[in-house]
Amino acid sequence: xxxxxLAIGIDIGGTKIAAGLVDxxxxxxxxxxxxxxxxxxxxxxxTVTSMISELGAGITVAAVGxxxxxxxxxxxSTVLFSPHLAWRNEPLRAELExxxxxxxxxxxxxxxxxxAEYRFGAARKQSHVVCLTLGTGIGGSIVIDGKLQxxxxxxxxxxxxxxxxxxxxxxxxxxxxxxxxxxxGNALAREARSLMAVHSPMAHALRDAANNDPHLVTGxxxxxxxxxxxxxxxxxxxxxxxxxxxxxxxxxxxLDPGIFVIGGGLGxxxxxxxxxxxxxYQENLSGRGYRPFAQVARAELGPDAGxxxxxxxxxxxxxx
Amino acid sequence: xxxxxLAIGIDIGGTKIAAGLVDxxxxxxxxxxxxxxxxxxxxxxxTVTSMISELGAGITVAAVGxxxxxxxxxxxSTVLFSPHLAWRNEPLRAELExxxxxxxxxxxxxxxxxxAEYRFGAARKQSHVVCLTLGTGIGGSIVIDGKLQxxxxxxxxxxxxxxxxxxxxxxxxxxxxxxxxxxxGNALAREARSLMAVHSPMAHALRDAANNDPHLVTGxxxxxxxxxxxxxxxxxxxxxxxxxxxxxxxxxxxLDPGIFVIGGGLGxxxxxxxxxxxxxYQENLSGRGYRPFAQVARAELGPDAGxxxxxxxxxxxxxx
Lengths: 320, 320
What we know:
2 copies of one chain form a homodimer.
Chain A: E1 7-12, E2 16-22, E3 28-35, H1 41-56, E4 64-68, E5 71-72, E6 79-81, E7 88-90, H2 92-100, E8 104-108, H3 109-120, E9 128-134, E10 138-144, E11 147-148, H4 185-197, H5 204-209, H6 219-227, H7 231-255, E12 259-263, H8 264-269, H9 271-284, E13 295-298, H10 305-318
Parallel strand pairs in A: 1-4, 4-8, 9-12, 12-13
Antiparallel strand pairs in A: 1-2, 2-3, 5-6, 6-7, 9-10, 10-11
């Protein structure tokens, strides 16, 4: 791999910033990590700038790709809105280019992760790809005929904010009944707390593990208890998987993909959840029997997907 | 317009078959119409063949485009399934090409209609287009960057079969709670019958107009009473419009279009329904305030859209 094909990928999350040197095959040769400094946009800019300097010192880098939770404008220049950080109409691309002297491209983190799965992971060479990043919420991306589809204003593939239950659970987005309130790590934790709250005899392992404190119940706790054999937690996971499957059927009605790739902390970790999702998807697909089922696959690239995809998108858009 | 740019468009509906000679600007210079002979696929084939012969006699025709309710394979060759006609994995393209000696392309009728709105109607020159055909149900189409997006297996943009109410109204597709059970002419008629059934004093005009017979209540009856000033029917239309708007917000979360075009018998006829849909769409759009609203426009081409779009798609795909 010639050196000019190297690109820097940056994944800015709510708690940490990961950066790496990524080659044209998606391999990471160096990596750095820093804590995200809360809501301080200037501090994040300074941290990212210094990480780019360190990774790029003495070598030729084609471009810098940044993935972050939030909405980027269609040109990859401006952060329209970020849920975790203080960016509102922030010209982050120009700021980073001025600070580093390098060419920069911004992408939504889920778009970057989905692109990486299309290029190097579970969706290689597929023509119609829908990726989901299942963590505390749902991130999404669409790749059709080798092109990331971001929508007219750059804010498409926010699958988690489709309303699937009218008047349902309140969502941080301001609406009620969003899909990510039923199919996510947050949904898993909420339902587990709800089972504890009704003093269910099913929930004794949950209560013990959480010291009877609902605040200590997380999606990770539920998945670890399920893996250790706790029936109540296993059932909670199946329930979340079924909601996931219903939403996949809705997405298939709109997008008719050849493959769904499920990644993210929750998606990658729990095979029984994906299995339940696939079964429910097939049971709910409109027109089943007269059309093929899309494949439902687990993501292959793990937590590096966002960094790898951001670097690759920047290299393709900006190199040469 | 040179003669070789003429194409024949055929729109096969559940009750009638419309055919026309369409030029490269979407103008129809000749047209024919025949009744659809129920579930008799051979009779439909014979009728379409004779219409093509009549329209094409003595002139140069670039291609024949057929639009029909149902699912076509991605190459436009085979009808996978049609709700109104007896086609199941029917190689209609090869049959018509053999019968007429002309080149033929099949498309879903809503895809054809949406394409026509993109090329010659309300969505001209728009990069990200979502079209809905609102009649007894909901047909849909997606055009991104000048390309009709049909999905991996050719069966995408079936927006009406997204489940928006878990366990809701039963749908002909076999599922419950599909969007088209809440935002369509059928939904309008069902809700009107429901209002009559509870002997509502609001429904006196409906009862009179339908001779107290629920079987005589149709979407058209409700819209005509609403246009004549009946308050109950006006409210029923607003309710259907609000359901339409909720679904548009869901579609915007996935596709982020620049414009929604609403056509079809119900969509084209009732401005108050579209106005209610637009308001509800804006009130329910996830991320409102941090992103632009898509335009919500009425279709411009009326009932000819399917014929014009089918002809245009065939000419572009097949002509010289």
